[in-house]
Amino acid sequence: MKLKWTFLLLGLLLLVSSSAAHAHSNNSEGFSTIDVQDQTIHYRLQLDMVELSHAAGFKVDERQTDNVEALQQALTVNKELLQEYLNTHIHIYADSIPVEGTINEALIAQVKDRPFADLSLSYSAREKPENLILEYNAFFDDSDPSHANMAKVNMEENQQEFIFTYEVRELSLGEMSFLTKAKQFLSLGLEHIFTGYDHILFVISLLIGAMTIRHILSLVTAFTIAHSVTLALATLEIIQLPGKLVESAIALSIIYVALKNIFQPDTKHRPWIAFAFGLIHGFGFAGILSELNLGGGHLATSLLFFNLGIELGQILIVSLCFPIILLIKKRLALKWLLPSVSTAVLLFGFVWFIQRAF
């Protein structure tokens, strides 16, 4: 009987010791020092090395935490993994525009007699930010809910000390001026329309099927009103649709208009078609705004000028393309060109639909 209890006691001791050897460092600490210098945000981040290995998904020998060389090797080998972890768990917004960090240096430091990863990151903004928002989510949901990070932020004359915890994960410093907001989101809208090749091809397809300047004005107006409505509804989170569904539907809209241009070249597009598809494209335009950190005070101005940027981009596309399309239609020798363009648009639409739907 005594032998049985002896084996049971030994088993419990082994279990406890094994758990202790692999346990996370509950109540882990972190330290952040953030300095904004012109267009660059310098971020020095210190995190418990053992806890970081658990969270980011790489291994360190927890029995040899005093082996600095081995820990340094683990940091160096897993730098890309660390980069991915930090970029998905720490988000910085400069004037509401997300900026992505790059690890410049990764060293081992001793903090409170424990090995810490001492990481130096830099974030590049388009211009010197007036407002900085930091969302910190390291460790909380995947490793240590009791984690706390003591942060110090220096931004011109604004200095703030803050503690990130499970319950409080966002820090905001400074305030954007109206002109900065307007400029940022007007530029963002222009950039979005000129890099949104699916939207550009849809507008060009509408132009190919247009008969007169008055007709194209009615199509563009209907498309603009429709996408402005759904852009606002989606950004305000009144109506939300799955991104995969929206992107697939945008590809189908391109396919439909291209097919109509090929097989019914003499039938003009009706404004209600542009309006119906404009509703879908508006949800697509809203996708980029959903990625930004827009507080209530920023939302109205941001939405207004982002949409204005899109409209200016559309006007430029129409102004450049429609005269060329009219010229091609009047030249008999070039009439083969528009069906060829529509066929190419159709192929792009099919490829996008397959990529997005499956």
From TrEMBL:
Lineage: superkingdom: Bacteria
Signal peptide limits: 1-23
InterPro entries, sorted: Put_HupE_UreJ (IPR032809)
Transmembrane regions: 185-209, 216-239, 245-263, 272-292, 304-327, 334-354
Swiss-Prot/TrEMBL keywords: Membrane, Signal, Transmembrane, Transmembrane helix
Keyword Electron transport listed: no
Name this protein carries in UniProt: HupE/UreJ family protein
Species, as recorded: Paenibacillus spongiae
The organism's taxonomic lineage, starting at the top: Bacteria, Bacillati, Bacillota, Bacilli, Bacillales
